[in-house]
UniProtKB/TrEMBL annotation:
Substrate binds at H23, D25, G182. One of its GO terms (cellular component) is cytosol. It catalyses: 2'-deoxyadenosine + H2O + H(+) = 2'-deoxyinosine + NH4(+); adenosine + H2O + H(+) = inosine + NH4(+). The active site is at E212 (proton donor). This is Adenosine deaminase. HAMAP family: A_deaminase. Catalyzes the hydrolytic deamination of adenosine and 2-deoxyadenosine. The lineage of its organism: Bacteria, Bacillati, Actinomycetota, Actinomycetes, Micromonosporales. Zn(2+) binds at H21, H23, H209, D299.
Length: 361
């Protein structure tokens, strides 16, 4: 196979992309954090927006998932009012659209935004309203985007059933799925079986953070016990693959590939939390070659100082990927989205394929 032609970052930004794994509280603009912190009296490491942005990346770049998660204390602290949540969601939609993202699923944990007496429903309603506003502004700017929302339950807490019911309650207003997140070690997904069984009875989609800091047992439980539609990260599935000229897949890896279970890989974030040694050594190269359902995501744009376009550019530099591979990742993501089939197909056929046909010509 001949190598793909090199592609420029500026051109990647203009190309349509899809995003499945992005945390709302991990993607705030530094300047917004500074302004919102001043309003509520929250103390930040610095009030200089540019310096604060650098601080988040440095603090998250520790090789530890637990240390990485500590940075969220500052973003969550300024997202405790309906106005702040609405603003953050609005800016999120605009920022993603400006990066060429035409479809995004953005997740957040409603239970983390109750410190100023909002109800769970009010939290969700504020975020959904912000996404509607941001999407409208993006369309006016000539960069239309469709945003779906995932509601996340924290795996160390005991509110997953409540959050699952909240997600289903708002399913016709922009919430497209459910997720659990947080430190994996010591908090297996099977602790939340009641929630997952409820979601299955309601014919509702869900993904599970698994196979990031913890290994194969986390992935196995997420799929075989809990019935996850997708794997949040799932990068440790590589532990079930024996390397060599012709890599050998173990039973679990073969099952994940054969069932086309999507992997929500987040290269830069995976390096920061120690799940991968570097971009060049990230298992995404092997998993792509073996034709797993690989998708490329940001996880937390603020903490990783990244965007979907930057992630694609990093992979292009590391693995020699060109437009054919970027299109493949993008279509994989759209095929794996939690919106109805006809909507996925429309975006693929009317937005993504025509754009890449020109780029590949």
């Amino acid at each position: 196979m001949s190598p793909s032609p090199s592609i420029r970052y500026e051109d990647i930004v203009r190309a349509p992309k899809a995003l499945l794994h992005d945390h709302l509280d991990g993607g705030l603009r530094p300047a917004t954090i500074v302004e919102l912190a001043a309003e509520v009296g929250h103390e930040l490491p610095t009030t200089d927006a540019e310096a604060l942005g650098r601080w988040f990346v440095a603090a998250a770049d520790s090789g530890s998932l637990e240390r990485y998660l500590e940075t969220f204390a500052h973003t969550v602290a300024v997202m405790q009012t309906a106005g702040a949540l609405r603003r953050v969601a609005r800016e999120c939609a605009q920022d993603l659209a400006a990066d060429g993202v035409v479809y995004a699923e953005v997740r957040f944990a409603p239970e983390q935004h109750l410190e100023r007496d909002l109800t769970l429903d009010q939290v969700v309603e504020a975020v959904l309203a912000g996404f509607v506003e941001g999407s409208a502004l993006a369309a006016e700017a000539g960069t239309p985007i469709r945003v779906g929302t995932l509601l996340t339950a924290m795996r160390h807490a005991a509110r997953s059933q409540e959050i699952a019911e909240l997600a289903v309650r708002h399913r016709d207003h922009g919430v497209v799925g459910f997720d659990i997140a947080g430190a994996e070690a010591g908090f297996p997904p099977t602790r939340h079986l009641d929630a997952f069984e409820y979601l299955q009875r309601e014919n509702f989609h869900f993904t599970i953070h698994a196979g990031e800091a913890f290994g194969l047992p986390s992935i196995w439980q997420a799929i075989q016990w809990c019935g996850a539609d997708r794997l949040g990260h799932g990068v440790r599935i590589v532990d079930d693959i024996t390397p060599g000229p012709e890599p050998t897949l173990g039973r679990l890896a073969a099952y994940v590939r054969d069932k086309r279970i999507p992997l929500e890989l987040c290269p830069s974030s995976n390096v920061q939390t120690g799940a991968a040694a570097s971009i060049a050594e990230h298992p995404i190269g092997l998993l792509r070659d073996l034709r797993f359902r690989v998708t490329v995501n940001t996880d937390n744009r603020l903490m990783s100082g990244t965007s979907v376009s930057r992630e694609m550019a990093l992979l292009s530099d590391a693995f020699g990927y060109g437009w054919r591979e970027v299109q493949w990742f993008t279509i994989n993501a759209m095929k794996s989205a939690f919106i109805p089939f006809d909507e996925r197909l429309r975006i693929i056929d009317e937005v993504i394929k025509p754009a890449y046909a020109k780029l590949l010509a």
